[in-house]
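Input record (one chain):
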Amino acid sequence: MALTPDDVVTKQFQHVRFKEGFDPDEVDDFLDEIVVEWRKTIAENDELKAKVAALESGAPAAPAAAETVVEEPVAETPAPAPTPAPAPAPAPAEGAAATAGIIELAQRLHDEHVAEGKAQRDQLIADAQAQAATIVAEAEAKGRDEIARQEKERKALEARITELRQFERDYRAELRSFIEGKLRDLETSPSGSSSTPVSAIGL
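The corresponding structure, as predicted from the sequence alone:
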């Protein structure tokens, strides 16, 4: 199906998910200019086609006019006058080339817009993946640091517990020695007091 200016006017492009590529207003304005120029080209093309058709339809009458003029000795070359008329014929080709150029420009603009959107999408995905990798690496590093800190605290607590147990053993041993010494003193003190006279005690 041939592309028309109305197709350009009503064309809707899908927006990219994360961020737009070109400014939609600038794209719309530029497409409006393309449509105006395109319509002018089509109108000129139609006008030229009409002229060519008129010239082609009037071509058979030219030889008759030439025959009537040949009877007069004065007119020598009136017949070749209509021959320059087909010269404008290449104009429709120029209009078609201009139309094709406009279509190609619009297609290139569309392709650039799509490529820009894809590049931005890929860049956003790459940035998100890099950010996610950074967050995971930081979380793993924090986890390792926290495990190392807890391990250090555990060893410090175990060392403190060992010191307290050793202190408990030493204290129990000293306390036992002290109590045993007092018991020995108590066991020896009655025998000593029995040999002491009562008068010496003050009774």
